[in-house]
Amino acid sequence: xxxxxxxxxxxxxxxxxxxxxxxxxxxxxxxxxxxxxxxxxxxxxxxxxxxxxxxxxxxxxxxxxxxxxxxxxxxxxxxxxxxxxxxxxxxxxxxxxxxxxxxxxxxxxxxxxxxxxxxxxxxxxxxxxxxxxxxxxxxxxxxxxxxxxxxxxxxxxxxxxxxxxxxxxxxxxxxxxxxxxxxxxxxxxxxxxxxxxxxxxxxxxxxxxxxxxxxxxxxxxxxxxxxxxxxxxxxxxxxxxxxxxxxxxxxxxxxxxxxxxxxxxxxxxxxxxxxxxxxxxxxxxxxxxxxxxxxxxxx
Amino acid sequence: xxxxxxxxxxxxxxxxxxxxxxxxxxxxxxxxxxxxxxxxxxxxxxxxxxxxxxxxxxxxxxxxxxxxxxxxxxxxxxxxxxxxxxxxxxxxxxxxxxxxxxxxxxxxxxxxxxxxxxxxxxxxxxxxxxxxxxxxxxxxxxxxxxxxxxxxxxxxxxxxxxxxxxxxxxxxxxxxxxxxxxxxxxxxxxxxxxxxxxxxxxxxxxxxxxxxxxxxxxxxxxxxxxxxxxxxxxxxxxxxxxxxxxxxxxxxxxxxxxxxxxxxxxxxxxxxxxxxxxxxxxxxxxxxxxxxxxxxxxxxxxxxxxxxxxxxxxxxxxxxxxxxxxxxxxxxxxxxxxxxxxxxxxxxxxxxxxxxxxxxxxxxxxxxxxxxxxxxxxxxxxxxxxxxxxxxxxxxxxxxxxxxxxxxxxxxxxxxxxxxxxxxxxxxxxxxxx
Lengths: 299, 434
Prior knowledge:
Chain A is of the alpha/beta class. Chain A has helices spanning about 5-25, 35-50, 70-80, 90-95, 115-125, 190-200, 260-270, 290-295; strands at about 30, 55-60, 85-90, 130, 145-150, 180, 210-215, 220-225, 235-245, 255.
């Protein structure tokens, strides 16, 4: 008999889900942000179909407030994988007056992404969007299905979710609906880092300790950038930091850290006991910030 | 109190991480039976909570002016749930110790109890059933055990909770334990591994730490039991693999590659084995078993692989790969236990889509033999329809023959779902022959 470790078990499950998406949908797309979760997805996609090519187009919903390191990394990886990348910009949604830029100290484009995403889904007629969301991230994510059916407004209705049993995935949808598919639902942040270690995956440099100019605000450190509305109470400092998530620059907090390898990051995360979403300023707006955004069609 | 040695993360080496395995647990029950407290206690005492969660627990405990920690915030997920003080849907909770990663599928009680528990427990290997020491076995405990049995879970752990409220009485514990054994013996099915533990989630007795309040209990803590269970081995069953996709590749390196991708649901396979493709019935031998760039000698249940055969036989999504000497019977009529999961009732003669693995087919609800109330399975109730949470023995008629196993012999190839063709919703789960 064979014994599998937890990472192998998770990988086998995720590859199964990827293949179900490829088989059950006509026009699936893989949402790719250049962060570690979508890098993991991309790697799983490569493994799931090899020697065939990855059967998904990739799409990035660009807030325009990215770390340059992530964008450079994204373009390198896309070239290496040989897949097509679509980029749709939140700036365009703003210019078309579909969304309004937030103002003030905490202005962020993170929640504006929803409109750009829904428009892109409609524009290309995607019937399934693969995403790197994980159930351990947040309380409302813990109740998410692997195949999550959304109506044509992209809305998530927690009370009307389809039961998912055994390994049977029901991807049948009505016209206009689409499915958000989450192959790494059952992975934790620790599992992702462990997988990165095992598979020797490359990541954008900002995940590891580096010297950076920072804005100290409310006890957190944000990367100094032109996108941030700096106010009098903010303090500009410099330190050695790393990022645990790589979202919009205006709402992703840095950790003071000298962890410069995957192994060190793993150990430091475990020892610190702080959650990953603790570093997402926009999720701290209220206890249900993410759930509210999801109901509106957010990833 | 001594913390288990497997809980400390410090100085974990790379080799250790890759030795961890995965165990899936199901918990179920309503909010007031202490389930959230049990999960919270398990995570708290295994040091698996984040700082934010610990702070939230301390804050809520202080706000409510409680003496003991209030763990309910860990499992209350959605806005509506917090407002109404109930849980709506199956939540997934993750934690790991040094040697094992755990996934808890936590199902709420209330109206959709059966539906949620079947859903949450479908992938689990262990079921934890909580019993209030003051109340003993309730209707819900019978239902809970029945579903664990229906799903053929390998281990059922009965936690006799709130022992602090019965002065840690050994007599009370023994009486309930005797009732549990009686219930277990009264079922005709094969017996799972049964564990019975006296605990107090609120005080932390025998959850992770051995209690000084129950010197008469010599058994293991819940945490120890969860570490001692071996994840199930489906390797000794007949080989079954649903074809997910056929992959064709022609390039410089792979001049003419044709392989069937799938996840082996049970059994093993090695190079040279003869495989039969169902429904066509054509056979060939295994030429290559591939996982990404690795070419394997053999593969096992749970592996996602791509299999190439020596002859060009017709197979596509919806085909099942088996070994010729262990073929499941083909049948256009299926006796099964159904659990109805949909708010729209099923009526005799109703038409649905059956999905088993990647296979889909048209099906008709031909006959409802009887309903089985899970809290009293001896009763066989007549009915002409199936409503939400009903469990029934039925006969299904299929448009084409389907190759399924009896659920008792092969769980992986003995289950299916029914899809309502009008709404596309998953409306039932079925267990062949059970």
